[in-house]
Structures are given as structure tokens and as C-alpha cells.
# Entry
Amino acid sequence: MRASFERFGKLDYVWLTFGTHHYVVINGVRDVVSRLSSTVKNIHVSSTISAIFPDPQALELASIQCDTPQGPVIHSGFHHIILASQATRAIPLLASYHGSLAKEDPKRQAVEDQIRCLRAFEYRNTIVINHTDSSMMPDNVEDQRELNLIYSSRDPAAFTDEKTEFPDCVSTSHTMATHVLALPRGLARIYQTTNPFVPLEKSRVLSVARLERAVVTVESKEALKGLSRENERRWWQCASQGEYRLGKLQGAGRASNSKGPGIWICGSFAYAGIPLLEGCVVSARNVVEQGVWKSEGIEVGCSPW
# Structure
């Protein structure tokens, strides 16, 4: 069943991008971050959040503990906490908050339900390489596209020697994707290959990134209903094109006026469709617009983004 979901995900991607270009940010993601955060105050960097617990001065609020180079730091007074991370990273933080609540606290069960939901999401290690090696592209120029998906029928065991020579290779059970990055004319072509199963020319490698990517399974599709539920979709639309509302687990009971801070979850895995950046953006907007604003009674005539 997992393989079937992966195939449908690829078909959705082909359908959604049919007849269009694959767009990238001209000045890079750092430019996007600087623009979005230009009016934000109290930004903390090099501060890994290690625990969440009730604010000692006001139990209906939350405090967070951050581990910094100077040692642990406590920040308090939060009405809402938005976990914009992978499910595997959010679980330990929710577990710390769950363990800090009194057994009779109704918030405890709501947080426990969130943890159970997030445990249904699986991840796979992924390698992304930026390079100038054109051998990752199809040999025939007419077959080359902005995004090139390639699979191999060779036995994964046959790539043992290549793996030793180029440790960033993966097995042929993966689909290799090479994206041609759009650059100003006159500059050398740069490619971004995800999960290469053939070795690249080492001298042409610009950067290597290792990350985890969510995998859609039967269990995760069912668990997703607790975070995001479909309102409406036309017969010709893919899952990610429908209209969605937040699932009942969002806010950890805050929507029903329960005491305690609102705890919200967003990310690529928390939205229908292929777990990519689009899911991060839409799920984040839904959490703010349908969750935080609604629970605080805030009405905004026009979305600021």
C-alpha cells in the first residue's frame, strides 16, 4: 500500500504542474526568511527548545526552556504554541508538556491524543545535492525537463561499489529527481538531485544536505484527519487542491474553551497531498487563521500575506 500512495503522489505532482514551470526563489530562501521576519520581534537563534511546561506564574499559559550556548533559558507567558517541525521532533516536546501536567488536568488527555496522532507519521532519510554534473540528466536533450524523475530496475545490491566510491548514493529502491535551477544567463547550469542512486563527479558537487522527509502511508492518511480535514473538493481536483479545516486535535482543546495554552501543529505532513513546502505554508496559514485568530476572537478582513 505504501508504494501505491507514493505512485499516486507522483501522479498528483505531474497533474498539478502540467503545462507550468517549476518556480524557485530568485535570491534564495534566506531572502524569504528576512522579508517574513522583518517586522517580528523577540527572535531567538541558537536556542534549541528542550521542554514545554505550564507557566509557574499563570498555569493557563506556557513556558518553554531553551538550551543556548550560555546555558538553559526560560521564556514564559505564551498563550499559544505552534509546533512547526517534523512530527518526530514535536513528539518529545509534547511529551515534556504532558509529563508536567497534573493527572487531573483535562489538557493532559488532549496532548496525549496529539502525541498518539504524530506517532503515525513515518519519515525516510533523504539526500539533496547541488552540483554541476550534467550526467544526472537524461541523455536525450528532448527528454530533459526542469524536473527529471528517474528510476532504475537494477538490483540495489549492484550499487555496492558505487556506494563505497560515492557515499551519498542511495539504493535503487528510490526515485532519483534532478531539478534544473533557474539562473541568470551566462552562468553555469546548476542542478539539484534528490536521492541519487548513481555517483556524481566529486569535483562538481557544490553542497550536500541530509534531511528527513515524511512518507504517506495508510496510517498517516488516517491520522491526518486529526490535524486537517477536507471540507470540499471538485471531482477534477487532487487532494491538495480541496478546501480544508483544522482537525479536532488542533489546539489541544483550546477551540472548546479548555484551560491552558493552544497547542497547534503544522508542517508538510500536516496537510493533504505530497509532503512538500506547499503543505508547510497552507497548514501554517490554517493554524493561524482558523486556530489562533478564531480562539482569540480576532477578525481580519483581509489576510496580511
Notes: The CA atoms of residues 147 and 230 lie 29 Å apart. The radius of gyration is 22 Å. The first strand starts at residue 48 and ends at 55.
